Model the fold of this input.
Amino acid sequence: MKVHPACMPFSPIAFGLWRLHEWNLSTSELIHLIEECIELGITTFDHADIYGSYGNEELFGYALKERPDLREKIELVSKCGIALVTQTRSEHRIPHYNTTSAWIRNAAEQSLRKLNTETLDLLLIHRPDPLMDATDVADVLTKLHNEGKVQNIGVSNFTPAQFDLLQSRMDISLVTNQVEFSLLNTRPVYDGTFDQAQRLQFSPMVWSPFAGGNLFTSTSQQAGRVRSVLHQLSLKYEAAMDQIALAWIRQLPCKPLPVIGTGRIDRIMGAAGSLDVRLERQDWYHLLQASNGHPVP
Done:
């Protein structure tokens, strides 16, 4: 699928690497996981410089160094703009955002080095920075694009107004906004985020599509209501509950691209299987009603 008319095709589901360091995979095991994803049609891999305390990109890069032929079969996404306090970043006294041109350039070039690639298919500004100078950010992103180091530019967790501000300073299009969205967090449906995506004809990327696992484990009333309906629909559609949840997200007209984050092949296969599920309109609204706790007005 194309997240934007100007962007190369991405897979309809992306594979998130924020927990890669927790899976304790050898390089050969990671290569096998990448190959399994490709075989299932999941070719877009979502990184950020900070994942794994700045270490996960390098782990993935080891796999690409050993198997450089994999690079042409996948799309690499990364993010920058967050400064974490870690043992490897002793100069960071507190967590903060940094979207200065020097920081963005250095972060992008470090991601290229760690991932063992010459270009990123998509670079996102990870979070809106109150100190962001939109002109400076637009300038460095455009230069990285013109230098061939970044093929496409986007943002993450931006409000529509913040998106519009940065876009107003750029001659190239921002191709996506990666935001949190799930059956337990439907804010983008109501705050204009998904309306903007449809207006500008881009597909938003969606992180935490299962609410960090809370969709299936939380004891909240909201989660309980949603799980009850998911169970009913899983029987009706002969699909797993997580497949119904992903299908519900993907059915929005802005065509969101969910980012899943599991190292288990069976769950990756399940996510890929969600592409075959299409909910009836009333079933879609039944899930929305369960999430909201009341019928639509």
